[in-house]
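ok here's the first one, seq then struct tokens
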Amino acid sequence: MAVTAWVIWGVVALGVGGVILRPWGVREVVPALAGALALVVFGLLPVGAALRGVAQGTDVYLFLTGMMILAELAADQGLFAWAAGWVAQRAGGSAARLFAMIYGMAVVITAFLSNDATAVVFTPAVAAMARAVEAKQPLPFLLICAFVANAASFVLPISNPANLVVYGAALPPLLGWVRQFGLASVVAIGATFLLLRFTQRRALAQPIMAQAHRPELSAGGRHAGLGIAGTAVVLMGASAWGVPLGLPTLLCGLGTAAVVLLPARLAPWPMVKNISWDVLPLVAGLFVMVAALDRTGLVGALAAALRQAGGAAGWRAGLGLGVLVNLVNNLPAGLLAGHALAQAQLAPQVSAAALVGIDLGPNLSVTGSLATILWLTALRRAGLHVSAWQFLRIGLVVMPLALLATVAVVALYP
């Protein structure tokens, strides 16, 4: 490998490492942008190539903006507090029952609204639920949002923006997708539930309140809920018609904001101020870094490795990408994998196994997927903290077995 390629890999490693470790407590966006800028400033990546890398994430930026608007509206209008009281009452004082109920809700939200919605929209709701039942250890319930966001992210094409990045114009039709990933999704969701519950078994023995206060749902809260439900319908339609999801999601978010804010004559600025906008430059930084990696010949090397693997290509793609995503994040890894798969021109089950690795592999570490990074941001806003090492210890139990079982399904039963 040329010296320049080694330097690019070094800069990317420092940038991603900074996102993981957050030295001196800096926000994740700082090392991501520093790595991207260093690649340009030191002549490792031309400005034009960097701008094209940023532009590749346009649909993701629009999608995230729409979802963050919906989440802020739901929280501000009391929808989360109302949902927290409703779920807490039905848990009947059982932490294990509450865990299962939240898990099921997270699966539905991930499947029909995307894993980023689970991280952005559902995490604050779960934090409210934990407070409503006075859980002394809220972490088991909050971990659901991170792990399900990845485990359920290939139920449908819209369940994860990375799905669209990997397949691009070759995205299978909706019914074809369900046939290919239906059983795999059941295995991933079920295995992750059992393994995650095992890691949290002691905390789930804690007592929680059997009765929790459920406030009345305001008109704004009802409208926010209808906006979220309407967004799910729109995204399903967009997916069926092959329309990029970013702009429809943004329009749904803006439309819901208008319906909620205008009748009450509320200014939008408090909502705008509370949104975590630094997520967008963080994603842009990751796309620039993958543009630099592309120039090192990584795509060609990946394609060659898949072609040489023969009958083991599905296993190599699924398990290898399951590790790679934790080094460069799932969206950049999805871009690399999509280009490599297009070059290699292999059987459909190889692409399916690759997608499983990209979607489920991030359950190993906090930087594996954008959804997990968004989850960490949502936790901080709720005054909670999970360290990278704490997440990794749980991920080492949950991810490998779930990934192995799910890759086996798509590789052996196409």
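and now the second one, same deal
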Amino acid sequence: MNDQKPSLADVRDRIDHIDQQIQSLISERANWAREVAKVKGEGLSAIDYYRPEREAHVLRMVVDRNQGPLTDAEMVRLFREIMSSCLAQEDPLKIGFLGPEGTFSEQAVRKHFGHAAYGLPLGSIEEVFQEVVAGNADFGVVPVENSGQGMIQITLDMFLSSEAKICGEVELRVHQCLLSRSGRLEDIKRVYSHPQSLQQCKTWLRINLPWAERIPVTSNAEAARLARHADDAAAIAGQSAGHVYSLKMVAEAIEDRADNTTRFLVIGRKLFPPSGNDRTSLLVTVNDKPGALYDVLSPLARHGISLNRIESRPSHDGKWQYAFFIDVSGHSQEAPIKEALVEMQASLADLRVLGSYPVALP
């Protein structure tokens, strides 16, 4: 039995051979992706080929097959990029997000759609909804919830009037960095950031920069853009914003919670079929009567449906009128949710299915 270890040259030759196999298989996959386009017909755009339920199914199989040493998240990221490039051969998807370049929203776009998609930076969350509904963007990515600061109300409020549908969700681990032109903490007199990020880092700021003015702006990337013009200014933003705007790292991971995570929603113009592991988001307006909320929740309980989240917001239909945003496990096209919705409609002022979509992957 030969126990001799391979030489470094042998190991590199083996890696080169595997790389050739991987590249050949990726090219083969891309060619088969073109065959899908031929089967579906000519003259279609990328949005006609994009199937989030199919993509989620493929990526779940990647996770199920994974035996290491790469993590599930790393394997999903690699396959996501392959799928993104294959889809974009003819016409890349156009994805709207809260800009400018370098925001956490852009990171969420890349995590969900890959780098072959075309990112469309927009000036506000409202504008992301508007561009998607108008057809100027195929999809949009908007923040909806932070693990420490709760729901992002402007996103919920947009669903009250927008026709946009929820097509997916992304969970992004958020690491906040303090960035400046000089890179010196003692130079900083004011700190720019999005209000949510200022809240996420308030304890660190109180301890380390008690003298600095905190200035809220529309996005963290906008904060980085402003901070690059003065030595006494800094921005709280992601590391990518520092690269984009040529800022130095003053401190990293300054968020108060070690598990700081933001959930984003993918919005589009239509609903998609079940993927096998889905979540449904509902918008419910109740009648003003005793037991109104019970009428909403009891059909879910009777049908054994898990309630993931419930939030209330003023409905904009009248003073002291409220709408409820409800997330449940399952897909609206499948029983038991389909049966529960029929029961709920009889006692509600309004019921809308905002979307049924695959549960976020690692």
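notes on #2: The CA atoms of residues 110 and 117 lie 8 Å apart. The mean pLDDT is 90.
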